[in-house]
Amino acid sequence: MKQFIELFKPKTKSQTTTMFAWALIAPAALVMFWIVLWPLYETFRLSFTNSNLGTLMGGADFVGWENYEKAIGGRKFPAIVTRTFYWMFLSVSFKMILGLIGATLLASNIRGRGIMRALVMPPWIVPIAIGCFGWVWLYNGHFGLLSNFVEMVGITDGPFSFLAYKQSAFYSAVVTDVWIGTPMVTLFFLAAMQGVPKDLYEAAYVDGASRWYRFRRITLPQIMPTIVSMALLSAIWTFNSFEIIWILTEGGPRGATTTLIIDTFKTAIFSYKFGAGATRAVLVVLILGVFSVIYLTVLGRLTKKYNYGGVQK
Amino acid sequence: MATVKLKNIYKNFDETEVLFDINLEINDKEFVVFVGPSGCGKTTLLRIISGLEEATSGSVIIDDKDVSNAPPVERGIAMVFQSYALYPHLSVFENIAFPLRVAKVNEKELEEKVFKAADILQLRDRLDFKPGQLSGGQRQRVAIGRSIVRDPKVFLFDEPLSNLDAALRGDMRVELAKLHQNLKTTMIYVTHDQIEAMTMADKIVVLRDGVIEQVGSPMDLYHNPKTKFVAGFIGQPNMNFLKTTDTEIKNKRLVANIGDLTLDLAVDVSSTTAGDEIDVGIRPEDLGVSASKAGVQMSVDVVEHIGATVILHGSVLGNSNFCAVVPSDSTIKPGETVNLIFDFSKCHAFNSSGQALKKTNKQI
């Protein structure tokens, strides 16, 4: 025993420092292990078993790649993956475009700019669930504002329930997701735009560059690192966005709004197929893992490309 | 090749009056320096000439054409900013080419012009670099290159050297002077550094609190400052001032008494009465050290050896910020007392409102 303790006693000063560092990290590391690593490991383990409601009491069996074969080979799976990517692409594109337009407007020198900046925030500040319930009402066929409006304008000739049809439900969910996600993107872009030194614009203005030219050749390249990082982060978040779709449609009607994350939830929790659900969760992790690698590589490259070496303050 | 005329320029920012009735004529090919302490309105005036700022009233006339309401690009000016304002994401080539790209100049002509500018500024081997990879002086040259390619009628410089270290600033001063000789273009240059103004300018415009204090050639300003402010601002080290204890007027000459010292000054006394308080100014380099006991006593606190000369700091007749420049072979040490000789003809006199009393050149 004494020998064992001797083994761990610091021998040099740098060892003491290292031990101290480990001691400081230990509590956080333990918590991280408990809430991240262990569940991750459990999910991986579960994904190779037939764990379900029936096996809760006594041992689920190891089934190898069966869950994966079933999931990937499943009839609905390709459609779900396609839909998830389409959902992500559509939503992120709109968030980026609207965010850019919004930030440009808010950055311009207009009266009441402060109030407008504040007014951009609510979709983001309001709890997602509350915002979504608001949209559920808006989309309602009988007493929803939108239905009434499209009828009044003459697009429909009767009550229209937006969330009741496959096509309209999907795009309605996209609209809501964009509504919730745009303010943050806008504010990040705005912050980036305000970081662009004013004299760059003045220099270009003296040279006769138009507003659009200045935006294209100064603003855009200057905030490109922010645009790319926001796009990739937003892609990850949208890919994983669960509560918005769930509150609006629960993945329906007839699976029209079921993305990979909704499918995972439905399989694992609603159908009590924990093993099969875990498999889907692992697939999500893998796909997002690829995204993260892309994110970090691209960001690294951009930082290098736009490394100004402190030319401007 | 252009003249610039400013007529009755006023500028207010909200309630604050920044420029007050500015009238100025700048000749073709002249190198004009606006100089003054920070907040005097010199940069604002430059920005009004450039078109980045609009005057509250008054007009800017370039080459006999009123451009007061024209955007900068139509004024035929090019501006070099204090921060250089280089585009960090573009190469040196693209930075210099930027104005030409805006003007949609064809690729061949564009390349020619950029190369020509790069040759003038010795940037040929730096064209593929990003601004972040350049030294301060090189960045400065890129900024100048960007203004050269446009062949402007008037160059505007806004404190272009203030971000450089002292040694580089000296080099760039010479380079800019050479550039002016080569390009033979009207240049307007803003600085708070009176040495830059003295060394480069054909004409110096001294501004103070939004008003032109004096316009003139460097030596004119040095020898004949119209106000106490100009006298104190131009020249390094600064001019010494002594307050009179009593004044008399004899034979249309001013006799100024400062303690035991009596100075007989050949200045215009038509607006002065005996007993008026007068500030007498004398430049540190116009003082001599007396070998005998004659002259005014100065108790020396600090001795600065700068090579060619020695600068003495100390007190004279109650002014404890008094300064004298003496030859480098001087052996005076701190704590000692020296006797200074005042050359009457080199003394300046200023009345209580800071206006200089004109020298009459009447010898004794």
3D architecture notes:
The complex is a heterodimer of chains A (313) and B (364). Chain A is an all-alpha fold and 313 residues long. Chain A is built from 14 helices and no strands. The longest helix of chain A is centred in the first third of the chain and has 34 residues. The N and C termini of chain A lie far apart (60 Å). The C terminus of chain A is likely disordered. Chain B is built from 8 helices and 21 strands. Chain B is globular. By secondary structure, chain B is an alpha+beta fold.
Summarize the structure.
With 313 residues, chain A is mainly α. Chain A contains 14 helices and no strands.
Rounded Rg of chain A? 26 Å
What is the CA-atom radius of gyration of chain B, in angstroms? 24 Å
Q: Regarding CATH, which class of chain A?
A: Mainly Alpha
As residue ranges, the low-confidence spans of chain A are 309-313
* Pair with the biggest interface: A-B, 26 and 31 residues
- N to C succession of SSEs of chain B: EEEHEEEHHHEHEHEEHHEEEEEEEEEEE
Q: Helix segment count of chain B?
A: 8
The oligomeric state is: heterodimer
Which ranges of chain B are low-confidence, i.e. pLDDT below 50, for 5 or more consecutive residues?
none
Structural class of chain A: mainly alpha
Report, as a whole number of angstroms, the end-to-end distance of chain B: 48 Å
Question: What's the level 1 CATH class of the largest domain in chain B?
Answer: Alpha Beta
Q: What fraction strand of chain A?
A: under 5%
Instruction: Kindly report the spatial arrangement of strands forming the biggest sheet of chain B.
Output: 6-7-8-3-9-10
At the fold tier of CATH, the topology name of the largest domain in chain B is Rossmann fold
